Predict the structure.
Amino acid sequence: MRCSPRCGSSSTAIEPRLPIASRPSRTRPRGGRCPRRQESLSSVSDTRPRPPSPMPVRAADGGSSGLKSVDTSALNSIALRETRVKNSPSVAEHLEMYRRMVLVRHLEEGLGVLHREGRTRGPIHRCDGQEAVGVAATAVLEPGDKVTTTHRGHAVYIGKGMAMGPVVAEIMGRATGACGGRAGHMLIADVEAGVIGGNAIVGAGIPAATGMALSMQVLGQRSVALCVFGDGAAQTGICHEAMNIAALWKLPVVFVLEHNGFGLTVPSAVQSSVPDLAVRAAGYAMPSEIVDGNDAVAIYRAVAGMVERARRGDGPGLVECKTYRMEGFSTSDMGGYQRPEDIAAWRARDPLKISREALRASVGDETLSDIESAAKTEVDDAFAAALAAPFPTFRLDEASNPYSEAH
Ligand SMILES: Cc1ncc(C[n+]2csc(CCOP(=O)(O)OP(=O)(O)O)c2C)c(N)n1
Ligand SMILES: [Mg+2]
């Protein structure tokens, strides 16, 4: 089954198969045995060929290969019926997602300019081309829900409702920043907005969101934790540990895998045994879906379905968003390993273009242009305010300063 008109990958959804103990929801099952595990695993090993994915990936041999995926369509019907909810965004919601994506794009481009002028500190991981993932996934959430993200988290910060001013000021290390200038661009958090934080340790946001979901379950809240993480992070051991325990205990956590084709300079094809990482969800009896990661509406729909079932106590789910990072790994990336034709192909499928095109028919060019110019002004103002703001002052504790002359 195709997950969206633009996505050549199949949706993969697997009914959770864990026995539920006496309490029907948010109850930790006593045992971890999965009675139908064998059935799901044998279905996953069916490797019938499928049409290639639109995501261009350089194969291990350096050639170009379409993604060969596992056909798990046999597993889809039950869970898809169950997770089919009223989950399409309204035009107003799509418009707001578009506005936030435009804000993030201006933020990224502004940072690029400042970096070239030598006015930023440390590497900055831009998310140009990936805005739809962080923005659309968080657009689904309610204010009490929490999100963790990665070193490339700008779209999540803005998507979950942080104001542009404190985000820009934090990236620029100013006292007026969301974390007082102490976090920098990779570690921004905002408790009130439900942003538990970016994280410079690859994979570390995955157990953090899972732990947050455990606390929500223990406290009997109706909230959901969402974790945005990369394809590189998906290869870490902690990812598997967290997913296993999340599925075993039916924790209200949704894993959103931002599959941009690379971990640092390493292509997915040489770091993963499977091209579609969503198939791993079957190993945890967890539903999963693959979507076009440049299509905000497709992401919103898939994440909304997973959030809905997590909120009602049916446990975690995984959404794999196929996307591409158009500006390299970071501002210190020297490039040369991304094929120009791949970059061009993905630029042609820019998530902002896809949403703009979809919205034009309903709201018209004028509304979109107004939104675009207001977003530009908002980001320009945020940069001007941040650059005029002071740096924080730090008081060193002499006793714990290893470089102190006092020792
Ligand atoms: C535990 C750990 N190992 C290695 C690194 C170095 N590192 C930083 S980003 C990165 C790649 C991450 O790839 P992915 O998760 O796909 O995120 P992307 O950069 O593609 O958004 C690596 C290996 C790190 N920061 N933390
Ligand atoms: Mg990656």
Summary: The longest strand covers residues 253-259. The chain has one domain: 93-389. The chain has eleven helices and twelve strands.
